[in-house]
């Protein structure tokens, strides 16, 4: 196997890099690793953050062939980008591809989203400063379904992002969001070329919605990053975060699967990653990792698959999930956000 262009002799572990599979990300020239690193967990969203541990994860991940890293200003309101920037110190810039975002920012719902051209231009400057670099490889418009209308994304945000690319501060343009249908509509209508999209929680053990869109996206040569194989914490042995938006039915059935895995001495998160890795058509599976144990077991699943005991549990867990009558939480967060914004507008301002 040829070594990827991100390989740096003397820095990488060549044997590990040769084990990694790489695929071209849509219409970009980026050959990305089959497993990639998400950094939402480099923020307080998922608990306490250990900078030393995060740094070791980043260094080990890149040395072992992971070359695509995703972040954004929303994760901890800049905390993840800032920590990632510190973690990347001492690593050759050639050794990795970096993706960040514009559009989603603050915890306060009244300040959470800003898809204006002006804010997007300011945001990339802040991101570059926190990351300690003068360019990112991919700039994505974050969670486009929350925009007042898709027209705003098409007529203002994306042209601003194209300007960021024209200035050399990013190379390629992407979209992120939960409703895959909204991502597809934006791609179809956009006059700005869309090189890739990040779809999260939509190609997992409980929801395979993304598979219906893969042929269409391939037809447009749009690269696909399949993120959140563990469905933002639902599909792991640890309890999901309190803020998780899934409904009670999904949480209850996932809890049953979680308990089954604990009883069998199996990690549900490994089964979930294995499931997402089996599907063709996506360039990479993006997984949040903020400690070396997670990195090690994710690489183990990637390179070795599941043990016989894990494979038996995997097949049983899939049967548990067959009882689900609802497999997603589409529109729940958007509707709650719209209600808040509407009440704030009617009440004459923010009550917080």
Word description of this protein:
The chain is an alpha/beta fold. It has a single domain, classed as Alpha-Beta Barrel (TIM Barrel), CATH 3.20.20. Helices cover 41% and strands 14% of the residues. It contains 12 helices and 10 strands. An 8-stranded parallel β-barrel has the order 3-4-5-6-7-8-9-10, surrounded by 5 helices. A two-stranded antiparallel sheet has the order 1-2. β3, α2 and β4 (68-70) form a beta-alpha-beta unit. The longest helix is centred in the middle third of the chain and has 17 residues, at 150-166. Mean pLDDT is 95; it is low at 348-352.
CATH architecture classification name: Alpha-Beta Barrel
What is the overall pLDDT average? 95
The CATH homologous superfamily is termed NADP-dependent oxidoreductase domain
Rough outline: globular
In terms of per-residue confidence, which ranges show pLDDT below 50 for 5 or more consecutive residues? 348-352
Q: Structural class, from secondary structure content?
A: alpha/beta
Number of DSSP E strands: 10
Protein name: NADP-dependent oxidoreductase domain-containing protein
GO molecular function, one term: L-galactose dehydrogenase activity
Organism: Acanthoscelides obtectus
Pfam family, one: Aldo_ket_red
Present the secondary structure layout.
Blueprint: H1 14-19, E1 22-24, E2 31-33, E3 35-38, H2 51-63, E4 68-70, H3 79-87, E5 97-102, H4 117-131, E6 136-141, H5 150-166, E7 170-177, H6 180-189, E8 196-200, H7 214-219, E9 223-227, H8 248-264, H9 268-277, E10 284-288, H10 292-304, H11 308-321, H12 332-347
Parallel strand pairs: 3-4, 3-10, 4-5, 5-6, 6-7, 7-8, 8-9, 9-10
Antiparallel strand pairs: 1-2
Helix pairs in contact: 2-3, 3-4, 4-5, 8-11, 9-10
